[in-house]
Amino acid sequence: MQTGLVNEARALAERELSESLPRRWRHVTAVAAKAERLATLLPAERDRLALVAAAVLHDVGYAPSVAVTGFHPLDGARWLQSIKFDGRVAALVAHHTNALVEAELRGLAADLLDEFDREDSPVTDLLWFCDLTTGPDGQDFSVQERVEEVRQRYGLAQWFGSSSTEAPGSSTKWRSGWKHCSHHLTRCRAPQAASDHGQCASA
Ligand SMILES: [Fe+2]
C-alpha cells in the first residue's frame, strides 16, 4: 500500500520511534503489517488508508519527543493534531485499544472525549484487533497472552483479574472496558472468517 497518507504516517512513526524505542518500533511495524493485510477486507479506500495509517502511528505517543502527559494515546493524538495530520487518524490513535478506560483511571477521560471523536466502526475493530494480537516484539499473541503481558509489564494486578484467562475482574471500569473490547474483537471475527471465503463482511 503506497499512498500519501500511509507513506507520511510511516515516515513520521519511523522518525519518532525506530531509534529511540526500537522494541516499540518492532511492535508497531508488526501491527501495521497485520493491519495492511486485514485492510483488504474494507470496501472503502478511505477506510483502508485510515486503518493502516492509524496502525502505524498508534503508539507514536510513547516517543520521548512526543510524550507530554505520559498517556500515550492522548499524547500521540495531540501531537498529530499539532502537526495537522489527518484528523480521523488522530482520533483513531486517541481512542485505540480501549484508551478511554485508562484515560478514566488517569483522570484524562474528559480531555480525550472533548478533543477527539470516538469512532465505532469496522476500522476501529480491526485496529484494536491488530494491536491486541501483537506482542511487544511483534510476535503474534492471543488476546489472553497480550492481556497477561500488559498486566505483568505494568503491574496492573489491581486492575486486571487474577487470571489471564478471565476478563479483568477487580475494577468496574476495566470490566466494562473489557466488555467493550470483547465486543470489538467478536465483530472482527466476522470479516476474518469472510476473508477465508474471499468476500468482505463489514460490520
Ligand atoms: Fe500497540
Quick tags:
mainly alpha; binds fe (ii) ion; single chain; 203 residues; Hypothetical protein af1432
Question: What is the C-alpha radius of gyration, as a whole number of Å?
Answer: 16 Å
Q: And the CATH topology?
A: Hypothetical protein af1432
Distance linking N and C termini: 23 Å
Largest sheet properties: none
- General form: globular
CATH architecture: Orthogonal Bundle
Number of strands: 0
H and E order: HHHHHHHHHH
Domain count: the total is: 1
**How helical, in percent, are the residues?**
55-70%
Task: Report the β-strand fraction as a percent range.
Answer: under 5%
> Spans of 5+ residues with little confidence (pLDDT < 50)?
157-171, 193-203
Map the helices and strands.
Blueprint: H1 4-17, H2 22-38, H3 45-57, H4 72-82, H5 87-94, H6 99-106, H7 109-115, H8 122-132, H9 143-154, H10 172-196
Could you characterize what this model shows?
With 203 residues, the protein is an all-alpha fold. It has one domain: Hypothetical protein af1432, CATH 1.10.3210. Helix content is 62%, strand content 0%. Helix 4 runs antiparallel to helix 5. The C terminus is likely disordered. Fe (ii) ion (FE2) binds next to helix 2.
